[in-house]
Design goal:
By secondary structure, the protein is mainly α. The chain has one domain. It has four helices and no strands. α1 crosses α2, α1 crosses α3 and α3 packs antiparallel against α4. The two termini are 17 Å apart.
Length: 116
């Protein structure tokens, strides 16, 4: 594994952790009681990753790359907007930047999001 691949893998891990934490943070701020805060903070990231994993694009071959990119950018973008809306504006911008850099590196290095 090259240094650039390691960096990109770290960016992906950071992006995915940011998505979970961002959606959870937003969910926490939606509840009025501790119970509803906990429930919503758990349900929102679960729904986000459920949407992410709901469709298996591998069966579409090379045509799957575009929809997969759109789906990943939508989920990470939604999490960034959620952080921003919940008051963590700098973290929202950071998550958006990490997502864009990760996806740009994937394509600039000739890679794909879906591996065989």
């Amino acid at each position: 594994m090259t240094a650039l691949q390691r960096i990109n893998l770290a960016l992906r891990a950071l992006m995915e952790a940011g998505i979970v934490l961002g959606l959870g943070y937003w969910g926490w701020h939606q509840g009025r009681s501790t119970l509803t805060r906990v429930l919503v903070a758990l349900a929102v990231p679960t729904a986000g990753f459920g949407f992410w994993g709901a469709v298996d694009f591998r069966g579409a071959g090379r045509a799957a790359e575009g929809p997969r990119l759109a789906q990943e950018l939508a989920v990470s973008g939604l999490a960034a907007v959620a952080l921003y809306a919940a008051g963590a504006r700098a973290l929202g911008w950071a998550l958006g930047a990490v997502s864009v850099v990760h996806h740009a590196l994937v394509y600039l290095t000739g890679g794909t999001l879906l591996k065989d």
